[in-house]
Amino acid sequence: MTSVSISTPLKALALAVSLSLLGACAQTPNAPTAAAATPVAPVAPATAAAPAAKALPRVVVLATGGTIAGAGASAANSATYAAAKVPVDKLIAGLPELGQIASVRGEQVLQIASESFTNQDLLTLARKVSALAKQPDVDGIVVTHGTDTLEETAYFLNLTVHTDKPIVVVGSMRPGTALSADGALNLYDAVATAGSQDAKGKGVLVTMNDEIQSGRDVAKAVNIKTEAFKSPWGPLGMIVEGKNYWFRAPVKRHTVQSEFDIERITELPKVEIAYGYGNVPAELVEAAGKGATAIVHAGTGNGSVANRVVPTLQKLRSGGVQVIRSSRVNQGGFVLRNAEQPDDKYDWVVAHDLNPQKARILAMVALTQPRTAQDLQRIFWEY
Ligand code: DAS
After folding, report:
1. Structurally, how many domains does the chain consist of?
2. In this predicted model, what pLDDT tens digit does every residue of 1-17 receive, in sequence order?
3. Is 83 in the pocket of ligand 1 (CB under 6 A)?
4. CA 180 – CA 106 distance, rounded (Å)
5. Is residue 204 located within the same domain as residue 300?
6. The pLDDT of residue 126 is above 90
7. How many CB atoms lie under 10 A from the CB of residue 52?
């Protein structure tokens, strides 16, 4: 190979031209190369007009608080800090890279730690998301949220907001003031996903720690690592440098396929959770079910119920309270009908693979109207 020393720009140009010629040869090995068949067109003058910039997707960030808006006293405070301090405009201004991937604006819906979310907060937020999703000048929505109940809000939006536009819920495990804070990249990923066409129609999504999770499946599995959010059946995809890589799509009903609509929900019924454990007193379960529309029993293993608690649940059922057996097993409780308890005989419902807190969300939405246990069970299989 003859080596010729030429100045760098010319070298780059020469390399580009030779590579393009090589490419032409590689594509059609037997046909004459472009150079042999026709004279090489002159390189376009540097002054040629750049192609029109592609319009950036329009993404709205709805902020509710949490660690992603948190602040600590020092960079070493990754776990000791105050949540819900930084306003949404500062979150956005602190991440100028967002301007390269979307046209972003923010709204402060709440400024709270998410353990303090109420049913009314869920309704307020979902109504806001639903209204924005209807706007033609909105392509995607991001909800910044505390991580403690993020999984509940994501599922609630998944069940009640009728849009195929991407809705992405995002949080962080460390405040922005900490070393190796995770919020900035999580937020960047959320905006990138909310602005991407390929995220449409996949239900509500959660972007944490480079993964794209289903809002239905994902739950906080660890409370001290940035790799905190897990779905028992795996993430839907990954996001790397603002690009989505999908591996699966949800099959359970969500958003536009849902029979539930936030526009038709005025309030949420009282649904409580009773935790199962060794020596659990039946009185605790009875108190949880008092005045409730439904009770979710967070049972051991396959949703098992202590023998001293069964009569209490039967009594609640006979009083009109729906009884839903879930499992306290982290990351993948899977409760089967008539396995640990005669659900048909007791007229009880099983929560399928939903953890207790997600089972409560679905039960609240489903029981915004009276239902038989059979119809409620259908809903737990479908959503
Ligand atoms: N207290 C937690 C919350 O607001 C902080 C967090 O992890 O976001 O959910």
Report:
1. 2
2. 333 333 444 444 444 44
3. yes
4. 24
5. no
6. yes
7. 6
- Tokens read off for 223: 């409370």
Helix residue ranges, H only, 33-182: 34-37, 88-93, 98-101, 119-133, 150-160
Instruction: Judge contact between 299 and 325, C-beta under 8 A.
Output: yes
Whole-number Å distance, alpha carbon 301 to ligand 1 midpoint, is 28
Residue 114 labelled as part of a binding site: yes
pLDDT of 39 strictly over 60 = no
Residues 235 and 112 in one domain: yes
Domain membership flag for residue 4: no
CA distance 250 to 149: 21
* Nearest atom within ligand 1 for CA of residue 113: 4
Of the candidates 64, 144, 147, 207, the residue annotated as catalytic is: 147
Of 234, 257, 280, the one marking the end of a domain is: 257
Average pLDDT over residues 14-40: 42
Read off the pLDDT of residues 316-353 as tens digits, 9 standing for 90 and up.
999 999 999 999 998 878 899 999 899 999 999 999 99
Give the residue, 259 or 78, on which the prediction is more confident: 259
Same domain, 82 and 222: yes
Domain containing residue 326: CATH number: 3.40.50.40
Residue type, 200: K
81 and 184 part of one domain: yes
Q: Which domain holds residue 84?
A: 58-257
Which among 156, 210, 165, 206 is positioned nearest to 354, based on CA atoms? 156
